[in-house]
Amino acid sequence: MKNKERIIFGLIITAAIYTIAQIVSANFKLNIKLLPDIFVTLTIFWVLSAFAIFIFRKHLSYTISLPKLKKVFKPFGMGIVIFFVTFVLLTIIMKVAGIELEGHPGFKVMNPLQIFIFVFIYASIAEEILFRGFLLNLLKPLSNKGITFFKRKISLSVILSAIAFGLAHLVLVRAGVGVFFLIRVVLFATSVGVVAGYYQEKYNNNAYAIIVHMGGNLFGVVAAILLNLIA
User: Fold this and answer.
1) CB atoms within 10 A of CB 202
2) pLDDT digits 0-9 by tens, 108-160
3) What pTM, to 2 d.p., does this model score?
4) Is the pLDDT of residue 52 over 80?
5) Cα separations in angstroms, 193 against 25, 50, 167
6) Cα R_g (the chain), whole angstroms
């Protein structure tokens, strides 16, 4: 498969999986109190991503295995750093500029346990299987091209999968969020995608991308849980 075909097929299939998940979750309700609507979306991500990885198995190599504990701290910590550098910094700028701050609409309909399970754990896994497990691995031949940032090579495959991940969050428009909230989330998600992709390529292991994602989600999830408990 040529590189142009990889980009085209990768982006189209990723967008199709994402779109199918959104459409199905919007029109199909489980009506099970313990399972929020996001469960349907994330499960479709997971199932269709696994199917796509299987179909394109001759063109990509998918690996996931639990890293040694001592190798977990740095990628997890980098996810936390990204949260503070992007999300928190943009929040402070918005506050100083007098822009009204918004919370994530999804957190308002989940209890603390659901936020922990389905945002911190389930979303981190499902989204990384799609955007890094499938898309990044399919684009892996593009890894010889890229840019150097702080003496670290960020490959074209990492950049493309990160941008796709960031832009996917534009779906929040459907929830009626404001422009500045949307910008903050897209920039944060793209940044997390870059770091997640970097560590996945470094170790050739999808687990590292998931760990970075969890680190990026940690403080947002903790804040949401605390606010949920106080309210």
Assistant:
1) 12
2) 788 889 999 999 999 999 999 999 999 999 999 999 999 988 888 999 999 99
3) 0.93
4) yes
5) 24, 19, 11
6) 17
Tell me how far apart the alpha carbons of residues 221 and 123 are, in angstroms, rounded to a whole number.
12
- Rounded to whole angstroms, the Cα distance separating 23 from 222 reads 29
CA pair distance 6, 54, nearest whole angstrom: 15
> Could you identify the residue written with the tokens 């390529």?
201
**Residue-by-residue DSSP string for the chain:** --HHHHHHHHHHHHHHHHHHHHHHHHH-----TTS-THHHHHHHHHHHHHHHHHHTTTT------PPPGGGTHHHHHHHHHHIIIIIIHHHHHHHHTTPPP---GGGGGS-HHHIIIIIIIIIHHHHHIIIIIIIIHHTGGGGGSEEEETTEEEEHHHHHHHHHHHHHGGGGGGGT--HHHHHHHHHHHHHHHHHHHHHHHHHT-HHHHHHHHHHHHHHHHHHHHHHHHH-
Residue 54, pLDDT > 60, answer yes
